[in-house]
Amino acid sequence: MIIARATVRALREAGHKADLILTPQNRFGRQLRAYAATRFTDVGMDGLCRTIDQVVSFRFPSYAVRHPRHVCWLNHRMREYYDLWDLLYARLGWKGKIKERIRRGLIRALDTYLLKRNVTKLYAQSKTVQARLARWGRIPSEVLYPPPPQRPYRTESYGSFIFTVSRLHTLKRIDLLVDAMALTHSRSLKAVIMGRGPERASLTALIKDRGLEGRIVLIDETDDATMLDRYARCRAVFFAPFQEDYGFVTAEAFASRKPVLTTADSGGPAELVEDGRTGFVTPPRPEALADKLDLLAEDKNLAERLGANAYDVAAGLSWDGVVARLLLE
C-alpha cells in the first residue's frame, strides 16, 4: 500500500491525474474468488465517466485486472505458493496438503498466464523478484527499484543505538538482532525495535532471557514522526528479513544517511547494500552480525562515512525516473 500511494503521489506531481483503486480482498483460502472478482472489475472509466488511459498494478491479484495499457510493477506473487511453499506445506494435515497442492497449481497457472499475456509491460521491484519470476513461470521482466517514499528524511546525529522498524513476524528475523546484541563486546550500544506483530511476546521473552532489558527497547509507535526521528538519530539500521522482495527500510535508511546491516540471504536489502561501502552484508548468524555491530559501536566516523555513501545511492533512486518508465508511450 505504501508504494502504491507513493506512486500515485509521484504521478500527480508529474502532472498526471492518478487515483488508487483497491482490488477485492484476497483472504487465504479464497484467493481464486479474489482473482475472479479482480478480473471482472471495470477500470475503463472513473467515477466521473472519464476514460482511464493506463493502469499500474503491484501485486496479486491486482494484475488480473483487464486494461489494454497495463503495466505491472510487481513486488510479489503469493509467496506461500512459491518460495515459501515448504513452510506452508509442513504445517498442513494430509487433507490440507491435497487441497493446497491443487490451489497452488491453479494459482501458478493463473499468475503465469496473467503476467505473460494480461500485462503490457512487467517490472520487478528487485532482482530477487525477477529471479522468482524466471524460476516459476519463466516470465521475463525488467528490474525497477522503488525510491524511498516521499517523506522529510533528515540526519541529526549518529547516536549509540541501532534502529530497526518492521512488522514483528518470524520472516523479519528481529531475533537475529537480539541474539547478536547479546554477543557484542560493546555494552554501550543499544537497540530500538519499532513495530507490531505476532512475534512481540516471543521477542520480549527473548530479550529478557538474554538479559538485554536495559539495552533493547521495543516501541509500539508506528507513526511516521517517531520513525523518522529514530532514523535521524541512530548509529545504523538493521534490516535482515528472510528473502524480502524489496523492503523500503533500506532505502529509507539510506535517505537518512545511515548505513544498513543486513544478511546475504535477505533478498532485496542485500541487493542495495554494498558490503563495507554502504553498510555490511554478513552471513545470517548472530556472531557475524555482532562483529559488525561492534565495529559500528566503536567507530562513529565509520558509520558517518558509510552513511554518506548510502545517501548517494538513495539520491540515485528517483521518482521522476520511475514515472518515466511506468508510463507507456
Structure description:
By secondary structure, the chain is α/β, with parallel strands linked by helices. The chain folds into two domains: 2-144, no CATH class; 161-315, Glycogen Phosphorylase B (Rossmann fold). Helices cover 42% and strands 13% of the residues. It has helices at 2-13, 31-39, 85-90, 94-118, 127-135, 174-181, 200-209, 224-233, 248-255, 268-272, 286-298, 300-315, 319-326; strands spanning 55-59, 70-76, 121-124, 142-143, 161-165, 190-194, 216-219, 236-238, 260-263, 279-282. A six-stranded parallel sheet has the order 7-6-5-8-9-10, with helices on both faces. A four-stranded parallel sheet has the order 1-2-3-4. Strand 3 (121-124), helix 5 and strand 4 (142-143) form a beta-alpha-beta unit. Helix 9 (248-255) packs across helix 12 (300-315). The chain is globular. The two termini are 26 Å apart. The model has no long low-confidence stretch (mean pLDDT 93).
The total count of helices amounts to 13
Main sheet, how many strands, which sense, barrel? 6 strands, parallel
* Backbone CA Rg: 21 Å
Determine the structural class based on helices, strands and strand pairing. Answer: alpha/beta
CATH class of the largest domain: Alpha Beta
Q: What is the count of structural domains?
A: 2
Record the strand order, biggest sheet: 7-6-5-8-9-10
In the predicted model, the low-confidence regions spanning at least 5 consecutive residues are none
Task: State the end-to-end CA separation.
Answer: 26 Å
| Shape category | globular
Compressed to H and E, one letter per element, the order equals HHEEHHEHEEHEHEHEHEHEHHH
User: Which percent band covers the strand fraction?
Assistant: 5-15%
Number of strands: 10
Estimated helix fraction: 40-55%
CATH topology of the largest domain: Rossmann fold
Average per-residue pLDDT, rounded, comes to 93
CATH architecture of the largest domain: 3-Layer(aba) Sandwich
Look at the structure and name the CATH superfamily of the largest domain: Glycogen Phosphorylase B
